[in-house]
Design goal:
- The chain is 42% helix and 17% strand.
- By secondary structure, it is an alpha/beta fold.
- The chain folds into 2 domains: 278 residues, EreA-like (biosynthetic domain) (EreA/ChaN-like  fold); 100 residues.
- β6 and β7 form a beta hairpin.
Length: 422
Amino acid sequence: MRRILIFLIAYFCLLITAKSQIKWDDTFTPFVSELLSTEANCENNSDLSAIDNLIQDKKIIALGEATHGSREFFTTKHRLIQYLVEEHDFRVFVIEDDYASTHLINEFVAGNSEHSIETLLSRNWLGAWRTQEVRDMLLWMKSFNENRSDSDKVKVYGCDMQWARISSTYIRSELKKSNLLDDETEKTLDDLINYNVRKKMSKREKKEVKHLLAHLNEIALNSSNDRLKFTIRVLEQCMDVTWTSKIVASFSGKRDRYMAENCRKIQELEGRKMIVWAHNQHIAEHSDNSKQKPMGAHLKDYFADHYYTFGFGFFTGEYFAYDHEKKKSCPCDAGMPKNDCIDRTFAGAPYENFVLNLKNKELPEELAALLNNTSWSRRAGGAYVKDNNSDLNYCKRKLSEGYDALIFIRNSKSVNALPYTP
């Protein structure tokens, strides 16, 4: 009996693997749209017309990325953002970065900053976005906004909440202007501004911060300053995430839930169509094998069919990440994906780069089965994992549940990192 059970388990595993090793068939090709260029300033956008019907009546378009450091992901997203702004009237851009720190970036694209974009990226955004590709996108936004009314400008927001320093700095400044900054509040805000995130807070420090947050929420109830109220809420989220161990699964779950909350708030404040830029793991409409509910699933619950996602995939090449062996961020070799990775199938397509509508009900049976069954696909975070077979380099999900469409890039190159500019 035990031998039969072992045989059945082995057979089932082989069957699942075989489904992920389907070779590209010519019958699949008519159902993908070739992406003619991954460069932002492409004069011919005829290939992007293929997405027009897909995004009709959508309020939020989420653009993912399988890594935080692939040049083609960034430039393709810049191209799509430009198209969505110019042809589909999208005017709000939200990125996976801190809400409070992004205000100065928004001031730049609105034409109200004397600082260089390189300085602003260095001081305010994560290192992942300090690249030539992101700089070029923000410069395009600034150019687009010139001579436009405030209501017609592209606005830039962050939806994340991991850093207390900038939120606390802004809150302190606003309270001081309004003569609402007492000594106790100022002291606790100063402590948060100078807080070392690697150090665990004492019980006394936690108590002081909780008292501060209760006091700030009372101020928010009587304030007409939307930015101040939003920043107070983000600081509250930040502390909740900070007090949740990053080792336990609830950390990512809380962060994604709060990012979704912030995206909803931004859309309600602006009332305009919105683009969200974040990792595939965050924009996905359904959880992967981690079982954590991503930001996209929360947004799908709220916006339903008005929320539309483009996941990004790739086959091989390199991407920019932190290499622990070299002790620095640098281009890292992605190598070849493991044998049962779905990206191997996509690499067999006749087009190097393409768009695939994952929800197309007319797909060939074999391709539909591939998309509707659980499979491995490539992914990478901020840190490089050299072992190509490590599960850390993959996520496992049904692609058709994770995203509405897939943008596949056969060969990934590293983004061009900018030097730190103080």
